[in-house]
Amino acid sequence: MTHAAATHHTSMGLDSRKMAFWAFIGSECLLFTSLISTYLVYKGRSVVGPSPHEILNIPFTSVSTFDLLMSSLMMVLALAAVQRGDMKWGKIWLFATALLGLVFLGGQVIEFTEFVHKGLTLQTNLFGCTFFVLTGTHGAHVTVGVLWLLTLWVRALQGKLGPGHALTVEITGLYWHFVDVVWIVIFTVVYLIQ
Amino acid sequence: MKHWITTTDHKRIGLLYFWTAFCFFLIGGLEALLIRLQLAQPNGHLVSAETYNQLFTMHGTTMVFLALMPLSASFFNYIVPLQIGARDVAFPRLNAFSYWVFLLGGLLLNASWLVGPLFQAPHLNVAPDGGWFGYANLTERQFSPGPNIDFWLLGLQILGISSLAAGFNFIVTILNMRAPGMKMLRVPAFSWMTLVTQFLVITAFPVITVGLVFLMFDRFFGTHFYVTAAGATPLLWQHLFWLFGHPEVYILILPAMGIVSEVLPTFARKPLFGYTVVVFSGVLIGFMGWGVWSHHMFSVGLGPIADSVFAGTTMLIAVPTGVKIFNWIATLWGGDIRGTTALHFAVGFIAMFIIGGLSGVTHASPPADLQQTDTYYVVAHIHYVLFGGTVLGLFAGIYYWWPKMTGRLLSEPLGKWHFWLTFLGMNLAFFPMHLIGLLGMPRRIYTYSPDLGVSALNLVSTLGAFLIAVAILVFLVNVLRTRTHGRPAPNDPWGGATLEWSIPSPPPVYNFSVIPTVANRLPRWKTEHHEPMRDPPAVPPAPIHVPDGSWWPLVAALGLPVLALAPLTHTLWLAFLGAAILLVGIYRWAFEPFDV
Amino acid sequence: MAEGDHPKEQAHPTAETYLRVAAALVVLTVLEVGVFYVPAFHPVLVPTLLVLSALKFSLVVLFYMHLKMDSPFFSFLFGAPLLLATGVLVALLLLFFGTLTLRGAAGGG
Fold this sequence. Notes:
The complex is a heterotrimer. Chain A is an all-alpha fold. Chain A contains six helices and no strands. Chain A has a domain at 68-194: Up-down Bundle (Four Helix Bundle (Hemerythrin (Met), subunit A)). Chain A is 75% helix and 0% strand. In chain A, α1 (16-41) packs antiparallel against α5. The N and C termini of chain A lie far apart (43 Å). By secondary structure, chain B is mainly α. In chain B, α2 (10-39) packs antiparallel against α14 (455-485), α3 (49-83) runs parallel beside α12 and α7 runs antiparallel to α8 (275-288). The radius of gyration of chain B is 24 Å and the shape is globular. Chain B has 16 helices and two strands. Chain B folds into two domains: 8-533, Up-down Bundle (Cytochrome C Oxidase, Chain A), CATH 1.20.210; 562-596. Chain C is flat and about 45 Å long. Chain C has two domains: 1-70; 71-109. By secondary structure, chain C is mainly alpha-helical. The chains are: A mainly alpha, B mainly alpha, C mainly alpha. At the A-C interface, α1, α3 and α6 of A face α1, α2 and α3 of C.
């Protein structure tokens, strides 16, 4: 990230890192689809309870969803600030994005703890297995994203992240928004369609 | 030594891939010989049933993931940047990372042969033993309590990371690093097939990753993804595995098809017949390869509609494959043919792949497939495709590009011996398996009764396997002899049309002293409309900056086997250590001053 | 990096566009949760929710991930695997939940 981005000519006129990252996101689509498919094909196959409607807390998760959507807004604002060279706001928005990510993770910790108290663990039934592994994988992605954002934020504080690194911020944003759209799907398919 | 460990040069990484994969190829071959010795006669007692299970599991896993895929990768690494006129791949350090992850994953898998005592088990008793497709729920802790399956699933997870990283890298390399003037339909067929293969890798590997994660959770954290008592179905594993597994078949064969599409035109001195059709057939095979996976599961009883759909798609995918075969034959037709060893292997590929393809079409019919499932007929089919196809194709590539990669030409007379022994050996080894299977011998059973009436055929098959081993020895002799006695290779020993032949053998570290400008699809050949391009000057007119090596891809890669050791040994702190190593590696890598 | 190096990547939208998209996302989320609680919607709950979710998905991908303005090739790199993934999902659902019906069609086989 520190080195000056390679500015040499590319055959497609597109940045190589960005292209690789889009390919990575394409690949991640298959990862999450496999997890979501498993959740769906195992729906209603658990032989013991609890079942989704006894466990899932829609108001709570709606707030988490809102939080993650807002973090995506912070992310694009950070990118816009860095692109116009406004590093002061760039830093603020980057930190805000990471903070909202942390809030989401905190929400997930509270949610998981509550589920365990209600009697749903990873081992309880197929709903528990598929739910925790799916949302846990998503949570792991959010964690990586938060670490990434905080790294950028620290680099910005050190003055090592400037408008020249707009592309780095943009790629971080691609990752962050992708994690957000995955949550949009999970929120609908897992939480709302019970 | 340090230069090899820290290297980011695609050529060195290509050679590392080659030698590592070739060692694994030899190990997988030894496992095959032991299997064949056991089956040479009825009621064999060379190895126990438990050891036999480990032998066939490790043979399949090794050949697929540690030999054939990385041997193809060695050519992706060495040849693709040269064919498209680039100085390196798009992400040289990621490329080094892919190699180290592959090496460490392979070592972890094979360590299972030796570390039995650490798990209170005798030698040779903790290697994976659930078959290369590791069907649930046999692989559950309840039925496979030892660490055997743990080695398998953790090893495959690690190898998947290597393949994915390489996949992103080569997609970007081929799309974005082409020399000026090299439009997509001027990209050589091998690089095109590499591109299609990498798209299959980045889409198929996530699926098996998820399947393996479920298995890991079942085995270590008490989940029930494949536990029928909890309402789950082992069919989930079969679907996830074959959703990956069928594209994987094309991941194994498309690179060999690409190699053959380079070798045939060179030695027939004719452009590839219907280049565009060959390329688009490859793309079509890649797409259709995603729609046939359930034909591996006909015996499950998916119902008549699903059976009919997958039977139909399976028969359809034979069409683009057949198109390619006719194009290769038409390339040879009327050509000025030079019978080099490389051409022998390429033509052998076509013939053997036709047999493997045809027996594949017989599986496409569910009623026929029900008779063939789990018999040696399937073993015969897979070996005609993966040995007759992929291995012969890879050897064609080895003889073709060896002078480019090492600077010396392999001996042609020894090469011919190698080819004919291989050809004879593989047909003796694998053709009888069709009959053995149709006569009713199941695969994966460690012995059989003389009453089955397949004893003589099995003995022939074993003799064939040893003939292949002799052929491989001839190849090794050829390699050793060539190191000292081989004829030094000029830039272009064969009269090839593509860019890799325009530069010295082996190429200098920067590959091209001047990046060539490509005006047509066969830049080095004289055609009706084009004069051959001029080769780049021997001495670069301006200094060329070559990036330094880096330690950090290796460090990051080291984190993965440490992470894998945590569940294997039930030691939590190893997980933190592994994650820390990985993180340090990634951070140092990201912030390394590294100007490309 | 100078913008001129990448002629195919056009300028990104302004903060105002970003805010409008965010407002739309919030409204759609409120609608989703609202629909969930209104009994009248229950017969069409699943399709309604899928449409709303797809809208949100598209808004983020098109505007926040810039696919609307960026090179179409990136849309391909994302869209092709996404299409494949959707196909896999539908196929798996049919294979798992269609089994009984399909067998029934064969006459109780």
